[in-house]
Design goal:
By secondary structure, this protein is mainly alpha-helical. The protein folds into two domains: 222 residues, Rhopdopsin 7-helix transmembrane proteins, CATH 1.20.1070; 89 residues. It has nine helices and two strands; from the N terminus they run ααααββααααα. It has a two-stranded antiparallel ribbon with strand order 1-2. The N and C termini lie far apart (125 Å).
Length: 344
C-alpha cells in the first residue's frame, strides 16, 4: 500500500508540473508536447502501480493492467521523439512523410499493445512477482522503441553541440534529468536485484522519472529559470493539500479527524499566501529582467549611434586634414614657381 501511495503521489506531482507548465503558455508547442509526454509517463506509472494488485484481479483485468505500461511507453517514446525535434527550438526539420510514417507506426503499436495479445499475451504471478508472457510481435515493440529513444538522444546531443548560451543550458538540464532517471532505473532493475533479490527493488524503478520530469520542466522555462520556482511551489502545495485532504478519512478517531481538517484549512490559507508571494516575487524579477534587457538595448543603440557619429567625424577629420595638407603643398609649389619667375 505504501508503494502504491508513492506511485500515486509521484503521478499527481508530474501531472501538476505538466499542467502548470502548459498553463503558462497553452499555445506554445513545446509546452503542449511536454504535457502529452507527462501524461504518457503517468499512464506508464499507474500501469506499474496496478501490477501491485494483480493477485486480486481476474485474468482479464490483470492482462489489461499489464498492457497499460506498454501502451504508456509507446506514447512516451513518440512524445520524446517529437520533443527532441522542437526543443529548445526547431533546428532540425525532418520531412513530413517521415514523421507521418513514424507516428503512424507509434499509433499502430499503441493499439496492438493495449487491445491485442500480440505484444503481451499473458501475465501471471510466480512467487509473488508478476511475470509476463510476450506475444509474437513483441520485437516490434522493443526495436522501434529503442531506435526512437536513441535517435531522440542523438538529436538533442547534436543540438547541445551546436547551440550556445541559455539554449545549450536547457538541453543540458534535459540530459541531467534523463541521466538521473536512467541511473535509478539501472540501480533498481539491474544492480540491486543481483545483490539482494529479496528487495524487489524493481518496483521502485518508476519513481526515478520524477527527476526526468522535474529537470525537463526546468529546461522548458525559456531563457530564464524564474518560472520553475512557481511551478515547484504550486506542485508542492497541491500535493500536500491532497494528502491533508485524504488523511482525515484515514484517521481512527474523531479528534484526529477534526485536528487534521483544521490543519488542512490552515494549510490552504498559508499555501495560498505562499503561492501568491512566490508569483509576486517571480513577476518582480521578470519585470526587472525585462527592464534590464530594454536598458541594455537602449545602451546598445546609443553606442551604435555614437560609433556612427565617431566614424563620420573621423572621415570628416581625415578629409579636412587631407585638404589642408594639399593646400599647404600647393602653396609651396606656388612659392617655388614665384621664385623661379623672379629669377628669370
Amino acid at each position: 500500500m505504501a508503494l502504491f501511495f508513492s506511485y500515486s503521489v509521484i503521478t499527481i506531482m508530474i501531472l501538476l508540473s505538466g499542467w502548470l507548465a502548459y498553463s503558462r503558455d497553452r499555445k506554445n508547442e513545446i509546452n503542449q508536447c511536454f504535457l502529452f509526454y507527462v501524461f504518457s509517463i503517468s499512464i506508464w506509472i499507474m500501469g506499474q502501480s496496478g501490477l501491485l494488485f494483480i493477485g486480486r484481479l481476474s485474468e482479464e483485468q490483470a492482462l489489461l493492467i499489464g498492457r497499460i505500461p506498454f501502451y504508456g511507453a509507446v506514447l512516451l517514446c513518440g512524445a520524446i521523439f517529437y520533443f527532441a525535434q522542437i526543443f529548445p527550438r526547431k533546428t532540425i526539420f525532418l520531412p513530413r512523410y517521415i514523421n507521418f510514417l513514424i507516428f503512424s507506426l507509434i499509433g499502430i503499436l499503441a493499439f496492438l499493445s493495449l487491445f491485442t495479445d500480440l505484444i503481451l499475451k499473458d501475465i501471471f504471478l510466480e512467487d509473488g512477482i508478476p511475470q509476463a508472457k510476450f506475444g509474437s510481435l513483441y520485437f516490434l515493440f522493443g526495436f522501434p522503441f529503442l531506435v526512437l529513444v536513441i535517435t531522440s538522444i542523438i538529436i538533442l546531443f547534436w543540438k547541445y553541440k551546436k547551440l550556445t548560451g541559455a539554449e545549450r543550458i536547457q538541453v543540458l538540464y534535459f540530459f541531467i534529468g534523463l541521466s538521473l532517471s536512467l541511473l535509478i532505473g539501472v540501480l533498481a532493475n539491474l544492480i540491486l536485484p543481483n545483490i539482494n533479490p529479496n528487495l524487489h527493488s524493481y518496483r521502485y524503478g518508476p519513481l526515478g522519472v520524477i527527476f526526468f520530469v522535474a529537470f525537463t520542466a526546468l529546461a522548458i522555462t525559456r531563457y530564464h529559470l524564474f518560472g520553475i520556482k512557481v511551478i515547484l511551489t504550486e506542485t508542492l502545495v497541491g500535493v500536500m493539500g491532497i494528502i491533508l485532504l485524504i488523511l482525515p478519512f484515514l484517521m481512527p478517531t474523531m479528534t484526529l479527524k477534526i485536528l487534521i481538517s483544521g490543519t488542512f484549512l490552515l494549510f490552504l490559507i498559508f499555501g495560498y499566501c505562499l503561492v501568491k508571494a512566490t508569483r509576486r516575487e517571480v513577476r518582480a524579477k521578470e519585470v526587472l529582467e525585462q527592464k534590464v534587457q530594454e536598458r541594455t538595448k537602449d545602451l546598445e543603440k546609443s553606442y551604435q549611434g555614437m560609433r556612427k557619429e565617431k566614424e563620420k567625424l573621423e572621415r570628416l577629420y581625415n578629409a579636412t586634414v587631407g585638404r589642408e595638407l594639399k593646400m599647404a603643398e600647393l602653396k609651396n609649389k606656388i612659392g617655388e614657381l614665384e621664385e623661379k619667375l623672379r629669377k628669370e
